[in-house]
Every structure is written in structure tokens, then in C-alpha cells.
Amino acid sequence: MNSTAPTPTLPDESGHFGTFGGRFVPETLVAALDELTHEYEKAKKDPAFQAELQDLLKEFCGRETPLYHAERWSEKLGGAKIYFKREDLLHTGAHKINNALGQVLLARRLGKKRIIAETGAGQHGVATATVAARFGLECIVYMGAIDMERQHLNVVRMRLMGAEVRGVEAGQKTLKEAVNEALRDWVTNVRSTHYILGSALGPHPYPMMVRDFHRVIGVEARRQVQEKEGRLPDLLVACVGGGSNAIGLFHPFLEDEGVRMMGVEAGGHGIQHGEHAARFQGGKLGVLQGTKTWLLADEDGQIELTHSVSAGLDYAAVGPEHAFLQNEGRVEYTYATDDEALDAFQEVAQTEGILPALETSHALAYVKKQAPKMGKDQILIVNLSGRGDKDVEQASRYLLPTEDDPS
Ligand SMILES: *Cc1c(COP(=O)(O)O)cnc(C)c1O
User: Taking a C-beta distance cutoff of 8 angstroms, is the pair 147, 119 a contact?
Assistant: First the structure.
């Protein structure tokens, strides 16, 4: 790898990953972001903070998660030996709680008693409501009205844990509008409130901090594959919404030259305007919600509509560190369509007895194409970012059309 190879010390002081990232926010938030950065740097070096985080990750969340050999699917595809990193087995059913837990511990250090969050599929909202309940903090979650409909089960879960879910009716009524509302709330209530942002996105320090809280995925996987195989994998695969589960898996391997990495975005109905959320296909450089990165916008810079069968990948911008890694050529990015994801969902369910999240199914769709092209002596790890319980109604509408629709 060349001398500009990414190192764990990125971003720089002002939150830039090369030309990407930074902090594009109203003046009122600058002090809060500085305070958060400072407290985070202190906490990172504080053995008491790290010990409590590690203890809760183990006892409350269920780490470490297994590195599972998907034996039947590997055999069926007839190529690479496929391992699943089982983040779907974590408490609340996805990787999101790694970050929510880390941030709630920071909020407590900062003396903030009110927590806000945005959510798309509802998984981050559920993770946030969970840790807020665990620490007795007030919790408000902003969620697009369309997402509330397609992920109703998660709305119920949040409310049962005492969170207030506020529906957002603006614009496309999905994740982007929910982030806008959360930012607006934060500007108004910044003294009492910590904003638990849910992906490796937004203004500095969020992309760095969220990445660091998810690095545990890759750190464990790296150790586990060495224990099981005595060597590093040939290929890592993860789906990319904002990019938190992917960067969590990839980051600890960035300096391992022989390890290829593939991020899989949502191809929706195919790469036409408004029909997908694959920012590296037909996207451009711009600024959205506090950060400079690749995003989907028209000639006038207006953010385009996005579409994905999975609410968790349905967002117009990608995390700035992914923009950097793509630019460096260190990580490659591709996409899977709705149909390809649903097909992989069904195949993994029926071959491995695991219902993956529809987000995760995009990564699995790429594995389905790529694994047969690899040798039987090659090793592939795919991040099983979440479980598909939240998606069963939606999946059954496509895959079991004769089933009575319960809704
Ligand atoms: C939220 C979510 C994603 C997408 O978010 P990233 O920040 O890109 O990881 C992927 N998979 C699952 C299961 C999710 O809940």
C-alpha cells in the first residue's frame, strides 16, 4: 500500500478524512461538538470508561459475537469458505447497540439527561431507547412517517421501553428528514441534550467516534479468523448505509494488504435517478447534514429521492471515511438491487436457518455472486449486521405472495 495509506489516526484534528468529512453546522452546535470531542478523547484514554464499556458489551449486549462458518451455503455456492460475523445475535438484533451504548456512557459523563436520536429502519432508535432505559434517561426518537409504517414493530419496541417516537411528515418522510428534525431539536436543547447519531455520518467527531465504537466487530473477527484458520481472510463484505457496520469490520484490517474489502450499497430498482441509494454510482461530492461526502443530488445540488427495499440503506449520503477509502482505492464499492437482496435473503434463510435483515441481504447478494468465483481455499467474511425479524412482513409480501397479509 502507498504512503497515503489510511491509518487509525484519521481523521485529522478538524475531522477531515482527506478532503472529506469536516463540520458543516450552525454556530450554536460548534461548542457542543467541541465539548463532545474533548470528552470523547478523555474517555478513550480512561481505563474506567473502557472497563465499563467492555463489561456492558459483554454482559448486556452479548459480545463477543460468533464468527460462524456458513457451511451449507459455502458448499452450495461452491467457492470461497464463507464466515458470518454474527452481529445479528447482539441484544436488540443489530450492530447498532455497540455505538448507542458507547454514546450513552459519554452522555452520562457530560451530565446530559435527555437523549435524542434519528432512526430509519428503527434499529438505531431501538438501540437508543434500550440504552436510555438502561441508564434512566429521557429519550426522544425522530422517525420519518413512511419508515414508521414500514417498521411498525420497531416503533412499538421503542414505546414499550419508554421512548417517545416523533413522526416526521416533511419531504420524503424517511431518514434524511428525521436527521433534520433531530439536528433542529439539538440546536434548541443543546445544554440538556446529547444527540446519539446512528451511523458513521454527520459532523466531526461523529464519523470517527461511531467508527471507533464499532471497531470491536473487526477486532474480534480478526482474532477469530486467525484462531480458526491461522490466517487473515481474502475478502471482507458489508452493506453500506451510512457505513457504520462496514467501517467497524473493515477498519482493523485496513493495513493488511492482502485483505480485499467490498462495501455494498442499495441499488433499489436499478441505477436510475430516484430509484436507488448507491451514492458511489451516479453520486457526486457535496455537503449533507454536517459532512462533506459522496451523495445523490441533481445539477442544482438538490438532494435526490432515494429508494431501497431496506429502510436502513435508504439515505442520500455515505459516511465520509468511505468516500475517502473509495478515493484511495483501498475499499471497493458495488451495489445490489432490491430483487437481488430478496433472493439472497431467501437463500440464506433456507440454507442456513438464519433470517438476515434486508440491509444485510444486500451484502449477501454480493457474496452470492462473488463466492463461486473464488477458490475453495479462499476465505470470505461477511458482516451479518442484523437479524430479519423486523423485515418478515415485508419479505413475505414479496416472497410468499399467497400468504394472508396480516395488516
Ligand atoms: C442500520 C443498519 C444498517 C445500515 O447502517 P450502517 O451504518 O451502514 O451500518 C445495516 N444493517 C442493519 C441490520 C442495520 O440495522
Answer: yes
